[in-house]
Write a structure and sequence with these properties.
The complex is a heterodimer. Chain A is mostly helical. Chain A is built from 7 helices and no strands. Chain A has a domain at 3-62 and 78-116: Orthogonal Bundle (Helix Hairpins). In chain A, helix 2 packs antiparallel against helix 3 (36-58) and helix 3 (36-58) runs antiparallel to helix 5. Chain B is mostly helical. Chain B contains 21 helices and 2 strands. Chain B starts with a helix and ends with a helix. Classes of the chains: A mainly alpha, B mainly alpha.
Chain lengths: 180, 496
C-alpha cells in the first residue's frame, strides 16, 4: 500500500473516521461512567456521531448548497443531497426529546435517592431488594410453619381451641425460628 | 364520501391518537382524559378491523402520505402481516381503556393521570405507526415515539425503583434505536431510497458490499435491543415490574411484538430471506440465542417471588419462541411466529391484567401477599389460571396452537434438539405458573387479613375478554392460522 493511497483512505474518508471515533467515545462513556448525567452526555455523543454520518453521506465534494440558482450556472450545478440533512433534523429532534426525558428522570432520581451515581442508586436498590426478599422468605417460612401446624391440629383435633390471638401466635413463631 | 373516508383509514389510525394526546393534556382532568383515551382507542380498533377486512378482501393497501407517490413520499402499506399486528396492538389498547380507569386511580396521583393517558396515546400512535409504515426512516421515528412514551409510562410507577428502570431502559432503548438508524443509513447510502419495497428492489445489485452486511448487522442488533432478545434483555424485567399495571399490560402485550414485527419486516421484505438467511448465517445465530432465551429466562422466572417480575422473565422466554420461528426462514416457521406474536400478546396481556387486579387489591403482587386470594378473588384467579395454562401450551388454548405450529416447523427439517428445547421450556413454564397458582389456591391467607372482595368489574371484564379471546383462538384457530399463513406467503413471496 503506497503512502498516497493510505492518505487517500485516511483523509478522503476523514468524516467517517471522525464518526467512528466520536461514536466509540460516546458508547464507551455510556458503558463506563457511573454518573447518570455523564451517561446521557455519552449517549448524545453517540447520537451526534450518527448525525454527522448522515450529513457526510449527502455531501458531494465541490458541491453547493441545494438552493435554486438562476441562469445557466443553476442548470448543471453540483449540489449536496438535501434529503439526509432533512432526515437528520428529525433525528435531532428525537435526540433532544430523549435527552430532555433522560435529564428529567435524572432529576427525579436525585430527588428520590439523593444521588446521581449509578452505583449508589443501584446499591440502594439492591438493599431494598435484599431486605424485601429476606422479608418474603421469612413470611413464606412462617406461612409454611403455620400450615403444618394447622394440618397437625386437624389430624388430632381433641376439641380444644387455640385461645391465643394471631399476634401471640406470630410471636411464638418468631421465637421458634432458629436464625433470626 | 364513504369510500373517501375508507381510503384515509391507514393514516387515521396514526393521526387519531397523535391528535388525541395533546387533547388529553389540554383537558387536564383525569376522567375527561380517560374518556378521550377510551374513545380514541376503540376508534383505532374499529379502524384496524376495517383495514383487516379490506386487506383480506382486496389485498395489500398502499397509501401515499400527503399525496406524494412512493418511493418519493412516505408510503403507508398494509399487507397480510401487519394488519394482524395492528389488530393486536389496537385491540390491547382498546381493552386497556376499559381496564385502566380503576387501576390507574390507585397507582397514579390524580393530578398526573391525564399525563399517563397522553403518554399511553403517544405509545399507541408510535406502535401503530411502526406497524403501518412502509418507509424505513419513518419506522425509526415511530419507534422512538413509542419508546419515549414508554420510558415516561414506566417512570410513573409507584416505587422509586421505577425511575432507574426507566432510565436504564432509556439508555438501552436509545442505543437500540440509534443502531437501527445507522443500519437504515447504510441501506440508504447504497440504494438511495428509504421506501422498503424500493430498497428491496435495489438491494440485489449492491448486496455483495460490506456496507449492506453492516447495515443488516446494525438493524438486527438494534431491533433485538428493542424486543429484548436474550443477551440484550437486561432492561426488561425491571421495566415491566415497576411500571404501573396498565402500562405493564400495554407494553408487555404490544411493544416487544411490534419491534419483532419490525425485524421480521426488515429481514424478509427489505433484505429478503435468501440474503439474510442463506448468504449470511443469521438464522443459526438467532436460533442459538432464542434457545438460550427460552431456557435461561424460564429458569430465572421460577425463582421470582414477585408475580410481575415472574411474568417479565417469562416474556423474555416467549420472545425466544417467536424468534426461533422466523429464524427457521420457512413458511411454517414464519406462520408459527406470527401466530405466537398474536397469541402471546393476548396471553401476556391477560396475565398482566390479572396481576394488576391482584395488585389493585393487595398493593403488592409478591407470592406471600397473594396467598389464599383464590377464594376471595375467584374471577381474577381463574383468569390467571386459564391464561397461565395457555402460556404453558395446554390444548384448547391459543398457546397450544402456536406451540404446535412451532413444533411442526422445527420437526419438519429434522431439528429435534430444538423441539426438545421447546418442550423443556414449556415444562419450566408449567413450574413457574404453578408457583403462582399454588400461592393463590393452596396456601392459607396470611393471618389478620380481613375478608376481601373481587377486583372492580371493569378490570375483570377486560381480563376475561382477553382470556376468552385466547380460548376462542385455541378452539377455533383457523382464522388466525390462515391469517398467519397469508402473512408468511406474502413475506416469502416478496423476498424471493
Amino acid at each position: 500500500m503506497s503512502l498516497a493511497s493510505l492518505s487517500d483512505d485516511f483523509f478522503g474518508l476523514f468524516n467517517y473516521w471522525v464518526v467512528i471515533v466520536l461514536m466509540m467515545i460516546g458508547f464507551y462513556t455510556v458503558i463506563s461512567h457511573d454518573n447518570l448525567v455523564k451517561k446521557l452526555i455519552g449517549l448524545n455523543l453517540f447520537q451526534t456521531a450518527v448525525f454527522v454520518f448522515y450529513i457526510s453521506m449527502g455531501k458531494i465534494t465541490g458541491s453547493t448548497a441545494p438552493i435554486l440558482m438562476d441562469g445557466p450556472a443553476g442548470e448543471d450545478a453540483l449540489y449536496a443531497h438535501p434529503l439526509p440533512h432533512v432526515l437528520i433534523l428529525t433525528a435531532i429532534v428525537v435526540g433532544v426529546a430523549t435527552t430532555a426525558l433522560g435529564l428529567a428522570l435524572v432529576v427525579r432520581i436525585n430527588e428520590a435517592y439523593g444521588s446521581i451515581e449509578e452505583d449508589d442508586v443501584l446499591a440502594a436498590d439492591f438493599e431494598t431488594q435484599a431486605s424485601e426478599s429476606e422479608d418474603e422468605a421469612r413470611r413464606s417460612e412462617r406461612a409454611q410453619a403455620r400450615q403444618q401446624r394447622e394440618e397437625a391440629r386437624d389430624e388430632h383435633d381433641d376439641g380444644e381451641r387455640d385461645e391465643r390471638t394471631p399476634e401471640q401466635r406470630e410471636a411464638a413463631d418468631e421465637r421458634r425460628e432458629p436464625s433470626s | 364520501m364513504i369510500t373517501q373516508f375508507l381510503e384515509q383509514l391507514p393514516a387515521l389510525v396514526i393521526v387519531l391518537p397523535l391528535m388525541a394526546a395533546p387533547v388529553c393534556v389540554l383537558l387536564h382532568r383525569a376522567t375527561l382524559a380517560w374518556l378521550v383515551y377510551l374513545i380514541t382507542a376503540w376508534a383505532c380498533f374499529a379502524i384496524a378491523f376495517l383495514l383487516f377486512v379490506q386487506v383480506k378482501v382486496g389485498g395489500p393497501i398502499s397509501y401515499a402520505m400527503g399525496g406524494w407517490p412512493p418511493p418519493f413520499g412516505i408510503e403507508l402499506r398494509l399487507d397480510a402481516l401487519n394488519v394482524v399486528v395492528l389488530l393486536l396492538v389496537t385491540g390491547i389498547g382498546a381493552l386497556c381503556s376499559v381496564y385502566a380507569k380503576a387501576s390507574v386511580a390507585v397507582e397514579i396521583a390524580r393530578e398526573r393521570v391525564y399525563l399517563f393517558y397522553a403518554a399511553l396515546l403517544l405509545c399507541l400512535c408510535g406502535l401503530a405507526g411502526i406497524t403501518v409504515t412502509g418507509d424505513a426512516f419513518n419506522l425509526f421515528v415511530f419507534l422512538e415515539i413509542s419508546s419515549l412514551a414508554s420510558y415516561g409510562l414506566i417512570a410513573m410507577g409507584t416505587k422509586r425503583r421505577a425511575l432507574l428502570s426507566a432510565f436504564q431502559y432509556l439508555i438501552m432503548g436509545t442505543i437500540g434505536g440509534t443502531f437501527l438508524l445507522i443500519g437504515i443509513g447504510f441501506l440508504y447510502m447504497m440504494t438511495g431510497s428509504l421506501n422498503m419495497a424500493d430498497i428491496a428492489q435495489r438491494l440485489p445489485a449492491v448486496a455483495h458490499t460490506r456496507t449492506v452486511e453492516a447495515g443488516l448487522a446494525f438493524i438486527v442488533v438494534g431491533a433485538s435491543l428493542k424486543f429484548a432478545l436474550f443477551p440484550l434483555h437486561v432492561w426488561l424485567p425491571n421495566a415491566y415490574t415497576f411500571a404501573p399495571s396498565t402500562a405493564s399490560v400495554f407494553i408487555a402485550a404490544t411493544s416487544t411484538k411490534v419491534a419483532l414485527y419490525a425485524l421480521i419486516r426488515f429481514l424478509f421484505t427489505v433484505f429478503g430471506a435468501a440474503y439474510a438467511f442463506d448468504r449470511l448465517p443469521l438464522g443459526e445465530v438467532l436460533i442459538v440465542l432464542s434457545v438460550a432465551a427460552m431456557l435461561s429466562a424460564s429458569l430465572a422466572a421460577i425463582f421470582q417471588t414477585d408475580v410481575k417480575r415472574l411474568l417479565a422473565w417469562s416474556s423474555i422466554a416467549q420472545i425466544g419462541y417467536i424468534v426461533m420461528g422466523f429464524a427457521l426462514a420457512s413458511p411454517a416457521g414464519i406462520t408459527a411466529s406470527v401466530a405466537h406474536i398474536v397469541n402471546h400478546g393476548i396471553i401476556k396481556g391477560a396475565l398482566f391484567m390479572a396481576a394488576g387486579a391482584l395488585f389493585w387489591r393487595m398493593r403488592s403482587v409478591s407470592l406471600n401477599d397473594i396467598a389464599g386470594l383464590g377464594r376471595s378473588m375467584p374471577w381474577t384467579s381463574a383468569a390467571f389460571v386459564v391464561a397461565g395454562l395457555s402460556l404453558v401450551g395446554v390444548p384448547a388454548t391459543g398457546g397450544f396452537i402456536s406451540k404446535w405450529l412451532l413444533l411442526e416447523a422445527v420437526i419438519a427439517p429434522g431439528r429435534y434438539w430444538l423441539a426438545a428445547a421447546i418442550l423443556v421450556s414449556s415444562l419450566l413454564a408449567l413450574i413457574y405458573i404453578w408457583r403462582v397458582v399454588e400461592a393463590l389456591y393452596f396456601r392459607a391467607a396470611p393471618e389478620g387479613r380481613v375478608a376481601l372482595g373481587e377486583a372492580p368489574l371493569s378490570m375483570r371484564l377486560a381480563t376475561w375478554t382477553l382470556v376468552l379471546a385466547n380460548i376462542a383462538l385455541g378452539i377455533y384457530a383457523t382464522p388466525l392460522v390462515q391469517a398467519a399463513e397469508r402473512a408468511a406467503t406474502s413475506l416469502l413471496g416478496s423476498g424471493a
